[in-house]
C-alpha cells in the first residue's frame, strides 16, 4: 500500500493554526487549489461522518468523509469517496504538534491508498507534492507575514 | 507531572538520529553530562542497558534504556538512581522528518512524580537544563557548516580551556577505571566501575582528563614491581582538575588544574583521590594532554641528566630506545646540554623520529650491533654515559660500548630482568653503575615542584618538544600496553577518560 508523508514547520502557535485547518469545509480558505466547498446535507463541518464536496481550480470534483477529528491531538482523518485521481481505500491524516521552542507548530500530512498497479509512484508524487506540500507551504506562508 | 519540549533542528533526521540513538553518546553532546558509560559492557542499544553518568556538577545518575525503535526513531528510558527526586521518571525522545527543508522535528518528554512543593522547580530543571540545553547543543553540533554526521575520526582532544569549577559533592562517586585482578598480560587490564570516596584529610579528588602510560605500568601489571595491590588500578601519571578537597587542604581549590607523576598507583581512572602534596599545579601554557604525556618521563629525564649523572658539554651520551617517550626527551635535553647524542632505535622510522629529536647518531639495532657503531663514532673511546632502560638485551653490550671511567645508568628493563651481575666485571673499565629508582628522586614534594618547574621551562623555551604518538580511550588501556610492549609506539602514549573509539 503506497504511503505519503509530508511535514513542515508552521510559524504560529498550534491553537492558531488549528483554528484555520480544523474547519473541514475550509480548504478553500487556506489551500491554493480548492475553488469552492460545501458540506453535504447541511451538516456541521465538525460532525464526524460529514462529507465535504469540493471543486478544484482545475475543475475536478472530490468528495471526502470526515472519519475522526480531535481537538485534543489537533488531528483530523478523512477518506476519499470520489475523486478523479483513481485511488481506492484512501485515508489521510492531517495533524499538528506544538514546537515548544519558538511556540510554532509541526504539521504532518500523511495518507495511504490503493491504486492500479504501476501508478503508485506517480500518485505518491502528485498528491505528496501538489496537494500536501503545496497546502502546507501555503499554510506556513499564511503565518509568515 | 508531564514535561514536554520540542524543537526543529536544521539537519536531516537520520543525522540527528545517529547522534541521539547512542544511549551512551550523551556525554559527547549534552553539556550537562561530564562522563558516561554503559554498565556491563559497551553495547548501548541493548534494551535494558544502563548508563551510569556524571553531571558537570559532580552528581551521579543511572538510567536504563527500556525501548528503542529505529522505525519510529524513538527511545524511552527511565531513571534508576539520581540525587534529584524525579520519582518514577520515564522519558522519551522521538524524531520526525520535516520533509520541507530536510530538517528534523524533535520531541523530548517525560512523566514523573515530584515531591509536593517542588513541581515547578523540577519541571523547569528538566525542561531547561536537560531538554532545551540538549537541543541547543545538538543544534550547534549538527548545523555547523560541515557534514552533518559526526566524523568517524577520533574526537578532538579535550580543550585545555577553563571549565567551570565543579561543585564539591562530599559523596562517593562512581568512576570508570582499569582494574587488574591478577598479574599477567595486557588483557588483564579490564574496564570496571569503581567507587571513589570523598577526599580524606589533606587529600583532593581529581577529575582526570589525560593519563600517561609508562613502562612502569607494565611492570606493575605483570607483578615485576609490587606497587600494585590486587585487585587494583595501575598508573602513576595523569592531569586533570580538582573536583573537591578534603580537610586541611589549603593550597588547592576545586577547579585548579594539576598533574602528578608518582605512586600510589591508580591513575588509570576517570576519578581518583590523591594526597594534595603530591600534585603539581599546571601553568596555563601546559595543557592537560601535554602534562600527562611529559611529567613522569620529563621528571625522569631531568634527574637522569642532572642528578644521576650531570651531563657535561662535549660528553658522549648513548641513549637506548631513543625514540621512546623518555628516550626522545633524553635526546633533546642531552643535546641542549651540549652532549654528543648517540641513540639506538629498532626501525628506520624511529631513527628519523630520534634524529628529529636531536639525536645526532641514531643506530638501528635491527641492522647492526650498536657496539662497533658507538666505538666508531667516539674514535674507539666509547660513550661517557649510557642510559639503558632496555635491560637484559643491551646491558652486556652497553658495558662494551662504555668508555673507561664511564657511567652506566641502568634505569629499566623493558626486555626483561637484568639478573645477577659479577661486580668484578666493572673493574675492567672502572665503570660506575647506577640503578636509580624513580621514587627515590621524586619523594620530596618540594623537589618535584622544582623539577617540574624546570621541565615546564625547558618546554617553554623549545628545548623539549613533546611528541604524543598515541592516544587511546581509557577503556582501551590493554591495547595501549600491547603496542608499548611490541615497541610499536613513538613518543608518549596517553589515555583519555570518557572517550569512545
Descriptive notes:
- The complex is a heterodimer of chains A (145) and B (501).
- Chain A is of the alpha+beta class.
- Chain A has one domain (3-144): 2-Layer Sandwich (Alpha-D-Glucose-1,6-Bisphosphate, Chain A, domain 4).
- Chain A has 3 helices and 7 strands.
- Chain A has a 7-stranded antiparallel sheet.
- Chain A is globular and about 45 Å long.
- Chain A starts with a strand and ends with a helix.
- The mean pLDDT of chain A is 94.
- Chain B has 501 residues and is α/β, with parallel strands linked by helices.
- Chain B has 3 domains: 2-142, 2-Layer Sandwich (Alpha-D-Glucose-1,6-Bisphosphate, Chain A, domain 4), CATH 3.30.530.20; 173-296 and 442-461 and 469-496, Quinone Oxidoreductase, Chain A, domain 1, CATH 3.90.180.10; 313-435, NAD(P)-binding Rossmann-like Domain (Rossmann fold, 3-Layer(aba) Sandwich), CATH 3.40.50.720.
- Helix content of chain B is 26%, strand content 30%.
- Chain B has a 7-stranded antiparallel sheet.
- In chain B, strand 15 (316-319), helix 6 (325-336) and strand 16 form a beta-alpha-beta unit.
- In chain B, helix 5 packs across helix 11 (445-460) and helix 8 runs parallel beside helix 9.
- The longest helix of chain B has 24 residues, at 119-142.
- Residues 145-168 of chain B have low confidence and may be disordered.
- The chains are: A alpha+beta (145), B alpha/beta (501).
- At the A-B interface, strand 1, strand 6, strand 7 and helix 3 of A face strand 1, strand 6 and strand 7 of B.
Amino acid at each position: 500500500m503506497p504511503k505519503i508523508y509530508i511535514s513542515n514547520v508552521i510559524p504560529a502557535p498550534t491553537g492558531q493554526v488549528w483554528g484555520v485547518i480544523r474547519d473541514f469545509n475550509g480548504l478553500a480558505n487556506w489551500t491554493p487549489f480548492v475553488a469552492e466547498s460545501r458540506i453535504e446535507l447541511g451538516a456541521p463541518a465538525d460532525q464526524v461522518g460529514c462529507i465535504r464536496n469540493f471543486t478544484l481550480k482545475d475543475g475536478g470534483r472530490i468528495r471526502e468523509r470526515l472519519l475522526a477529528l480531535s481537538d485534543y491531538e489537533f488531528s483530523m482523518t478523512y477518506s476519499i469517496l470520489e475523486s478523479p485521481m483513481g485511488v481506492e481505500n484512501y485515508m489521510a491524516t492531517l495533524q499538528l504538534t506544538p514546537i515548544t521552542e519558538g511556540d510554532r507548530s509541526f504539521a504532518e500530512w500523511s495518507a495511504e491508498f490503493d491504486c492500479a498497479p504501476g501508478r503508485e509512484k506517480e500518485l505518491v508524487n502528485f498528491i505528496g507534492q501538489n496537494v500536501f506540500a503545496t497546502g502546507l507551504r501555503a499554510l506556513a506562508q499564511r503565518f509568515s507575514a | 507531572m508531564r514535561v514536554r519540549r520540542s524543537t526543529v533542528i536544521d539537519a536531516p533526521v537520520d543525522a540527528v538520529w545517529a547522534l541521539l540513538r547512542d544511549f551512551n553518546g550523551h556525554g559527547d553532546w549534552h553539556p550537562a553530562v561530564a562522563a558516561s558509560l554503559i554498565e556491563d559492557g559497551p553495547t548501548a542499544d541493548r534494551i535494558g542497558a544502563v548508563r551510569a553518568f556524571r553531571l558537570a556538577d559532580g552528581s551521579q545518575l543511572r538510567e536504563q534504556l527500556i525501548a528503542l525503535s529505529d522505525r519510529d526513531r524513538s527511545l524511552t528510558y527511565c531513571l534508576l538512581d539520581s540525587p534529584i527526586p524525579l520519582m518514577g521518571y520515564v522519558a522519551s525522545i522521538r524524531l520526525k522528518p520535516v520533509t520541507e527543508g530536510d530538517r528534523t522535528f524533535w520531541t523530548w518528554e517525560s512523566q514523573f512524580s515530584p515531591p509536593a512543593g517542588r513541581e515547578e522547580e523540577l519541571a523547569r530543571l528538566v525542561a531547561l537544563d536537560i531538554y532545551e540545553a540538549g537541543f541547543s547543543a545538538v543544534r550547534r553540533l549538527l548545523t555547523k557548516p560541515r557534514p552533518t554526521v559526526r566524523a568517524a575520526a577520533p574526537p578532538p582532544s579535550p580543550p585545555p580551556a577553563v571549565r567551570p569549577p565543579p561543585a564539591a559533592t562530599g559523596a562517593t562517586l562512581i568512576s570508570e577505571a582499569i582494574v587488574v585482578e591478577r598479574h599477567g598480560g595486557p588483557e588483564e587490564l579490564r574496564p570496571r566501575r569503581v567507587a571513589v570516596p570523598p577526599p580524606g584529610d589533606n587529600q583532593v579528588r581529581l577529575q582526570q582528563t589525560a593519563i600517561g602510560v609508562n613502562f612502569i605500568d607494565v611492570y606493575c601489571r605483570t607483578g615485576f614491581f609490587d606497587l600494585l595491590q590486587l585487585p587494583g588500578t595501575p598508573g602513576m601519571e595523569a592531569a586533570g582538575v580538582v573536583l573537591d578537597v578534603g580537610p586541611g587542604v589549603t593550597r588547592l581549590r576545586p577547579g585548579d588544574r594539576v598533574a602528578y607523576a608518582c605512586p600510589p598507583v591508580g591513575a588509570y581512572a576517570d576519578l581518583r583521590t590523591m594526597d594534595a602534596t603530591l600534585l603539581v599545579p599546571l601553568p596555563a601554557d601546559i595543557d592537560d594532554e601535554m602534562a600527562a604525556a611529559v611529567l613522569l618521563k620529563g621528571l625522569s629525564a631531568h634527574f637522569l641528566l642532572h642528578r644521576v649523572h650531570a651531563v657535561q658539554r662535549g660528553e658522549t651520551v648513548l641513549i637506548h630506545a631513543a625514540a621512546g617517550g623518555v628516550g626522545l626527551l633524553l635526546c633533546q635535553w642531552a643535546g641542549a646540554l651540549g652532549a654528543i647524542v648517540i641513540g639506538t632505535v629498532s626501525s628506520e622510522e624511529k631513527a628519523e623520529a630520534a634524529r628529529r629529536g636531536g639525536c645526532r647518531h641514531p643506530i638501528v639495532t635491527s641492522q647492526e650491533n650498536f657496539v662497533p657503531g658507538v666505538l666508531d663514532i667516539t674514535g674507539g673511546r666509547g660513550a661517557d654515559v649510557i642510559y639503558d632502560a632496555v635491560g637484559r638485551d643491551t646491558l652486556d653490550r652497553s658495558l662494551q660500548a662504555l668508555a673507561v671511567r664511564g657511567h652506566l645508568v641502568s634505569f629499566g628493563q623493558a626486555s626483561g630482568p637484568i639478573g645477577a651481575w659479577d661486580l668484578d666485571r666493572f673493574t675492567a673499565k672502572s665503570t660506575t653503575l647506577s640503578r636509580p629508582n624513580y621514587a627515590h628522586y621524586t619523594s620530596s614534594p618540594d623537589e618535584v615542584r622544582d623539577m617540574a618547574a624546570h621541565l615546564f621551562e625547558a618546554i617553554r623555551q623549545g628545548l623539549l618538544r613533546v611528541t604524543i604518538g598515541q592516544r587511546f580511550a581509557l577503556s582501551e588501556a590493554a591495547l595501549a600496553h600491547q603496542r608499548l610492549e611490541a615497541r610499536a609506539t613513538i613518543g608518549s602514549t596517553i589515555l583519555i577518560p570518557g572517550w569512545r573509539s
